[in-house]
Amino acid sequence: MSGKLGKQLVTLARQGGGSFKTVSDRSKIASRFSERLATLNIQIRDVSHIKTKHVENYIRSRQDENISSRTLQNEMAAIRSILSQGGRHVLANPAHDKLSNQALNISGASREGTKVAISDERLREIVLTVSEKDRGVALGVQLARYIGLRAEETVQSAKSLNTWRKSLEDGNNNVRVVFGTKGGRPRDATIFEKQKVVNLLNEAIRHIERNNGKLIDKPTLHQALGRYHRILFESGMTGIHAPHSLRYAYSQDAVNHH
């Protein structure tokens, strides 16, 4: 699905003019935008089908990867150029009520000050709401909060649940995160609320045993990630409460601990 859209966006990126580097960077962003829409299970084939929410979801998914506001400002400039070349002048308007840098929460040169750790109360509300839609996503949110997992690490955590439980039962205070890590580098995550995490792992293991060995029952990692992001977004995890607020709460635990 993304093949046709991807080619079209890259062509429009090249038509936007500018230096060789500008055009090259814009083309890369066009490819990434198209691929990410496919990852989020947004199946469109033409620039005329791009909607406000598609751009919002793209930027949100990039924020979840902790991409800096400065980089995202550049990406939005490229996306606006592409949309403008494709005749989507309303969406390309930098003052668009939902797609301005300010509305997308990328207007500052840094995201310092916009990070808020999710409160226990807010987490409980999210878990209750999400549980009605997808139990696996609800368990994933809690694993992300108490083990400090990124989105991809969360979705792939089913492969590690038994190992993590055994590590904690053997008296260790950390678990090794292997799947979905940045650059494929394993890292150790300290567990601050051990009994809570063991209970959570027990629950998650029971869930995957009933669920084809997966936390989120989708055939591909792309589709599982897309479902995870989509359900959290629909359940109110946006703005300061976007999924990175889970890891920020975990990192606050680390600061308080040390």
Outline the structure in words.
The protein has helices at 2-15, 20-39, 52-63, 69-85, 89-92, 120-133, 135-147, 151-155, 161-169, 194-209, 221-234, 244-257; strands spanning 174-177, 187-190. It has 258 residues and is mainly α. It folds into two domains: 2-92; 120-257, Orthogonal Bundle (hpI Integrase, Chain A), CATH 1.10.443. The protein has a two-stranded antiparallel ribbon. Helix 1 crosses helix 4 and helix 7 runs parallel beside helix 12 (244-257). The longest helix has 20 residues, at 20-39. The N and C termini lie far apart (48 Å). 36% of the residues are buried.
Question: Quick recap of the structure?
Answer:
The protein is mostly helical.
Q: What is the name of the CATH topology of the largest domain?
A: hpI Integrase, Chain A
Structural class: mainly alpha
What is the helix tally? 12
Instruction: State the CATH class of the largest domain.
Output: Mainly Alpha
- Mean pLDDT across all residues, rounded? 89
CATH architecture tag of the largest domain? Orthogonal Bundle
Give the overall form: elongated
Number of beta strands: 2
Biggest sheet, open or closed, and with what strands and sense? 2 strands, antiparallel
When the domains are counted, the total is 2
Assess the beta-strand content as a share of residues. under 5%
| Oligomerization category of the chains in this entry | single chain
Helix content: 55-70%
**Cα Rg:** 20 Å
Cα-to-Cα separation, first versus last residue: 48 Å
Q: What are the low-pLDDT stretches, counting only 5+ consecutive residues below 50?
A: none
**Order of secondary-structure elements:** HHHHHHHHHEEHHH
Strand order of the largest sheet: 1-2
